[in-house]
Amino acid sequence: MRSFLPIEGMAIRWQSQLEILDQRELPLREDWIRIDSPADMVVAIKELAIRGAPLIGVGAALALAQEAQQNFDTLRLSSMAQDLRQARPTAVNLMNAMDRLLTTLASGADQQTFLNAAFSIYREDIELCEQIAAHGANLLAGKSRLLTHCNTGSLATAGVGTALGIIRAAHKKLPCHIYVDETRPLLQGARLTAYELHKDGIPATLICDNMAASLMRAGEIQAILVGADRIARNGDFANKTGTYSLAVLAQYHNIPFIVAAPRTTLDLACPDGAAIPIEERRAAEIHGVDSGSYRLRWSPAIPVYNPAFDVTPADLVSALVLDTGVYTREDLLSGRLSQIR
Ligand code: MRU
């Protein structure tokens, strides 16, 4: 059997065994968790030990590949793919990856063909990130004081990242300074983006989410870059909660608002943002901190509103950077996304 190993990403690796970096513990601990079965991957995705729209699709595909190497039982693999597909509801990369592998199984593929399909989801994601980074860095030309939200880097993809991949490529051309939204409630900005930027030596300043507006007013932000979890046919998109308010602020302050994603984040069957399913998460994440080994409660037990994502309408997007190229607001509003194959 042809070997595709080793896989050595920042957040996923496979030498003799599939493992993920437990993102709940970053940046204080770098704990690698063994993934022995697709069921282990379902739990890891639900609990955000592995996260980020592209990476959960890649992780699910590799968990199925590991299972298929040990036991190529198509009915069992199809049922496991269905369980993985449902592990989180918003990021469509997971559904796209699982549907691709379900189609491969349904076509009567043999073990090697199935493994090729699963590993190509991993390899493609690395390529797509590179293409996004190249397109986006050209778009940014001359803009160096940037703001980003959540984590869109090598902890969220198999490669250099989407929005953070653009930032990395732009910084190579012109030194940048990155303002990092902490990204309440789970602090993907403060814990994960700060970790990646610090490792890369890219200058960065951490802010609380509610400080972005005054920085924009002060003229400190030249462009805002975010990722996406699902992009509807009309260009509306879901991303980490707090993205929509940044887009509104960007329009008021006349700052370019740039969205970056691979084509695996497109859901062309979804007509608009209103049709995107939004994940609601546990109250404990808002009543205090409740993730991995971090536990602190500061609020009484009043009801909580905790959508993990919000939807930004296409008319607030200055540019959408896909691996296929750059799409302007006008492109989105005139339906150009529906032409992407
Ligand atoms: O809940 P998370 O941490 O999985 O949310 C991640 C995001 O919202 C990212 O911005 C998005 O997946 C794009 S990552 C390239």
Walk me through the structure.
- It is globular and about 60 Å long.
- Helix 5 crosses helix 6.
- By secondary structure, it is an alpha/beta fold.
- Helix 7 links the parallel strand 6 and strand 7.
- It folds into two domains: 128 residues, Four Helix Bundle (Hemerythrin (Met), subunit A); 207 residues, 3-Layer(aba) Sandwich (Rossmann fold).
- The strands form four sheets. The protein has a seven-stranded mixed β-sheet, with helices on both faces. A four-stranded antiparallel β-sheet has the order 1-2-3-4, with helices on one face.
- It contains eleven helices and 17 strands.
- Bound molecules: 5-S-methyl-1-O-phosphono-5-thio-D-ribulose.
Report the mean per-residue pLDDT as an integer. Answer: 97
CATH topology (fold) name of the largest domain: Rossmann fold
Q: Any guess at the CATH architecture of the largest domain? A: 3-Layer(aba) Sandwich
Q: Percentage of helical residues?
A: 25-40%
Helix and strand sequence? EEEEHHHHHEHEHEHEEEHEEHEEEEEH
According to CATH, the homologous superfamily of the largest domain is Translation initiation factor eif-2b, domain 2
Regions with pLDDT < 50 over 5+ consecutive residues? none
Instruction: Indicate the overall shape.
Output: globular
Tell me the structural class.
alpha/beta
Radius of gyration: 19 Å
Helix tally equals 11
Instruction: Return the domain count.
Output: 2
Number of extended strands: 17
Strand content: 15-25%
